TrEMBL record:
One of its GO terms (molecular function) is GDP-L-fucose synthase activity. Its EC number is 1.1.1.271. This is GDP-L-fucose synthase. Catalyzes the two-step NADP-dependent conversion of GDP-4-dehydro-6-deoxy-D-mannose to GDP-fucose, involving an epimerase and a reductase reaction. Keywords: Isomerase, Multifunctional enzyme, NADP, Oxidoreductase. The active site is at residue 148. Transmembrane segments: none annotated. It comes from the Bacteria. The record marks 119, 121 as: Important for catalytic activity. Gene3D superfamilies: NAD(P)-binding Rossmann-like Domain, UDP-galactose 4-epimerase, domain 1. SUPFAM superfamilies: NAD(P)-binding Rossmann-fold domains.
């Protein structure tokens, strides 16, 4: 392996069988790419059709037969503010079931090493900024994603409990807002950056009168909701443009601040954390690490960057009647930085990479 790979995986062995749950998702796929570049050849994956992580019996049989050395739990039901508002029951049930089954059955099968992927939404809505790992459970959560956040907190605490009772080496990472290749661009449940990228791309196509290109985009990335059709001037049947003044409408006031991390940087952080000794997570230290850039930007500034990247020169309208969510979500990255990791991609370079992937042939 390369010198960098040897260093970052010092506590791992290339012969380990590593199960990556959620390998088809943006984060899981990026972690596999990183592991492969680091020389790991025994990576185990299962599609949902092959293994339903909500079914305890199936998960138990999988671990009984596969002799897994390390689990990366990247499988989850995820979505943006609209999806969290619309499907709260699915978000809490699905994520709790996946975590409970994978963590428990991994321990039951003798797997001592596991990395659980959480989310920065675990922190209180009005937590001090930047948010430190010690701020967990010190205040109320943001209501729009509370069910999802509670499920993620449960995953952290489950890892802690198994470490304390059974002596396992289960640890967690809390990423900030992620984006990049393999992101979800469906406008009913996407996160902020993929939603913006697609909205601005569609508006640019509409401004250029490229109806056929809009139809191809819809076939690849999912239906365009009625409000977005109206904003860009697309007829209900996608056959024509009904006006020539496309605009992009975004939720909220545009003033909340967000921190964004490219998924390849997140994958590098995960492999780095997998290689750390368990002493890093021994009480009273938190059992998890924040992963972010340490810098944030307003939603309005993010929109301006993406509009310029995509090449849309029309109007952006913010709808203050829709929720803003948490006013600010900036992670303190002091602990993981002190442990030898930091991101490599700037936001501008990362957005350009994400847009290249979006435009790439299907």
């Amino acid at each position: 392996m390369a010198e960098e790979s040897v260093k970052e995986t010092a506590m791992l062995a290339p012969t380990m069988r590593i199960y990556v749950a959620g390998h088809r998702g943006m984060v899981g796929a990026a972690i596999i790419r990183r592991l492969e570049r680091s020389g790991f050849a025994h990576i185990v994956t299962r599609t949902h059709a092959e293994l339903d992580l909500i079914c305890q019996a199936d998960v138990r049989e999988f671990f009984r037969t596969e002799a897994i050395d390390y689990v990366v739990l990247a499988a989850a039901r995820v979505g943006g503010i609209h999806a969290n508002n619309t499907y709260p029951a699915e978000f809490i049930h699905t994520n709790l079931m996946i975590e409970a089954n994978v963590i428990h059955e991994a321990w039951r099968a003798g797997v001592r090493r596991l990395l659980f992927l959480g989310s920065s939404c675990i922190y209180p809505k009005f937590a001090p900024q930047p948010m430190r790992e010690e701020d967990l459970l010190t205040g109320i959560l943001e209501p729009t994603n509370e069910p999802y956040a509670i499920a993620k907190i449960a995953g952290i605490k489950m890892c802690e409990a198994y470490n304390r009772q059974y002596g396992t080496c289960f640890r967690s990472v809390m990423p900030t807002n992620l984006y990049g290749p393999g992101d979800n661009y469906h406008l009913d449940n996407s996160h902020v950056i993929p939603a913006m990228l697609r909205k601005y791309h569609l508006a640019r196509l509409a401004a250029a009168g490229e109806v056929e290109a809009i139809r191809r985009d819809e076939a690849r990335y999912g239906a365009i909701p009625a409000d977005i059709r109206a904003a860009i001037g697309l007829a209900p049947d996608s056959s024509r443009l009904v006006h020539d003044r496309p605009q992009v409408v975004l939720w909220g006031s545009g003033t909340p601040r967000r921190e964004f991390l490219h998924v390849d940087d997140m994958a590098a952080a995960c492999v780095h954390v997998m290689g750390l000794g368990q002493d890093v997570f021994a009480p009273p230290a938190p059992s998890f690490l924040n992963v972010g850039t340490g810098h944030d930007i307003t939603i309005r500034e993010t929109a301006d960057l993406i509009a310029a990247l995509v090449g849309f020169g029309g109007d952006t309208v913010f709808n203050p009647e829709q929720p803003d969510g948490t006013p600010r979500k900036l992670l303190s990255t002091d602990r993981i930085t002190a442990l030898g990791w930091q991101p490599r991609l700037s936001l501008q370079a990362g957005l350009a990479d994400a847009y290249r992937w979006y435009l790439s042939p299907a």
